[in-house]
Amino acid sequence: MNYFKQIFSFAKPYKGYAILNIICNIFYALFSTLAMVSLFPMLNVLFDKTKQINTKPVWEGFSGIKGYLENYLNFFVTQKANEGSEQVLFFMVALVVSMFLLKNFFNYLAMYFITFLRNGVLKDLRNTLYDKYLDLPLSFFSETRKGDSISRISSDVQEIQTSFLSVLELIVREPLTILFTIITMFMISVKLTIFVFIFIPISGFLISLIGKSLKRKSDSVQREQGFFLSIVDETLGGLKVIKGFTSEGVFSNRFKDSTLRYYNFSNTLLNRQNLASPTSEVLGITVISVLLWYGGRMVLNENSLDAGLFIVYIGLAYNILTPAKAISKASYGVKKGNAAAERVLEILNTESPLEDKPNAKVKSDFESEISINNISFKYEDDLVLKQFSLKVPKGKSVALVGQSGSGKSTIANLVTRFYDVNDGSISIDGDDIRDLTKHSLRSLMGLVTQDSILFNDTIKNNILLGKESATDDEVINALKIANAWEFVKDLPLGIETNIGDSGNKLSGGQKQRLSIARAVLKNPPIMILDEATSALDTESERLVQDALENMMKNRTSIIIAHRLSTIQSADMIVVMQKGEIVEQGTHDELLLKNKAYKKLVNMQSFE
């Protein structure tokens, strides 16, 4: 229940619906009890047991409320009987029907109002969780299965919604129904009610024993669902490799193993949950059976209880069973939902190490230089960068080259503040980037990565990520600068053409040129190119390289390159090995030194 305190905070915008639901539940509980009580005068009329009272009874206070209500009812029936037996029977039937109609009317209204609250909480919880995923750093997702994240935002949140309804029923409608029923039962017979309630704690104890392991089992089900969703995601993303290596059987077996575990966990969980209702009903019928025996003796042997009242009492006692069953089901739902809430709130309560400082500065322009000052960084245990320093003046292009694993791409991740340095600092115009808002920092930068990350949408909408307010003419101009307009103009729908999942309707070179067009449209003062041409064929590389040169004119650029032919015109080339700078200079200067850079050039010339 501790987790639901935080979940309940999402209900605050919908408290009006909650209040209306509670009011309707109060009336439902009241009319649910009165519906049973209304059977008493009906039985008296049928069996001609109505006491003839011709004088209107006088109210003498709450201490005599039972006698007053009984006498007033008999007086009213006597008056009606004087008008004819058929009329009094019709009136009694109308009374019973009216009570049941009102009970169900308020039940509908209660469910009507709670629907808005439930779905509102579901919507807001999903939105908050999605925003949290957007805010968390990349390091979080390198350690988390994507399928598990999808499971939390879909099925776990749905489970919370279901449990949320159960909690509201648990704390309002069903307890009130039981309370009103018990009060009425005490008014009919104190002795009989006390006898009944000797058995209720025993029943409650037995029911509570069933659900102790539900939270643990539910948590296993939800984690396993996240696991097989991850397998599905990886399968769909890597179908080409799976088919190419004829690994269908390996992945199929892995998926089947997961779904078998899910099957076993789910069976155990649901069978225990399904045990709640029959157990509570059997225990309830046992109580009713004892009640029939003990109450029957009061009616037949002791003559201390009216037969009609005893029948109504039996109805009231059974009236407790339905809400008691609902409470037991709801309590299991709460245990199940508690596991889901724990998983959702685990994400919501995760603190991002990259949060903006309270007084973070908004930087709107780039004036002089990017300065990387003695930085060290490690993803896990081993340092990827060691005391690395570099200055990138405004308007200059700096290329980082070196073998895989030398730390080139890490520089791009740190400058864009996808990660924070462990030691040292990175500053722009003298401002430490940790003192700037992430939004304003990244607004100064354009990013083109080795993997062309595009979305299942139109070309236009993919390009507009660079600048949402751009006109069609601006989009087309960006495509021209990126050498992409030549193939886009020939597509059936032009810029309105959908490019499929991850842009898979296009070639690698076409996707990369769209990525460049997106960065061109953003028109940032700083451009970061992370091996933007390494995955391309020679012809595509030439087109993309031309596009990059068009884009980098009069722009500050950090270029991470695998193919050295693409960075020969850079203002400075930095050669890296194992996280350190081994030499730097222009292309011609480095060739003359005849060291690490010359070796890299010679190696590539034979590729």
What attributes characterize this protein structure?
ATP hydrolysis activity; alpha/beta; transmembrane helix; 607 residues; 4-stranded antiparallel β-sheet; ATP-binding; ABC transporter transmembrane region fold
Put the structure in a nutshell.
By secondary structure, the protein is α/β, with parallel strands linked by helices. It has helices at 2-8, 15-37, 39-46, 65-81, 85-135, 138-142, 146-188, 190-197, 200-210, 214-237, 239-244, 248-274, 276-300, 307-348, 408-415, 438-443, 459-463, 472-481, 485-488, 508-522, 538-552, 587-593, 596-605, and strands at 369-378, 383-393, 397-402, 423-428, 431-432, 445-448, 526-530, 556-560, 572-577, 580-585.
Describe the structure.
With 607 residues, the chain is of the alpha/beta class. The protein has a domain at 2-348: Up-down Bundle (ABC transporter transmembrane region fold), CATH 1.20.1560. It is built from 23 helices and 10 strands. The strands form 2 sheets. The protein has a 6-stranded mixed beta sheet, with helices on both faces. Helix 7 packs antiparallel against helix 14 and helix 9 runs antiparallel to helix 13 (276-300). The two termini are 64 Å apart. It comes from Formosa agariphila (strain DSM 15362 / KCTC 12365 / LMG 23005 / KMM 3901 / M-2Alg 35-1). Residues 370-603 form the ABC transporter domain. It is a multi-pass membrane protein.
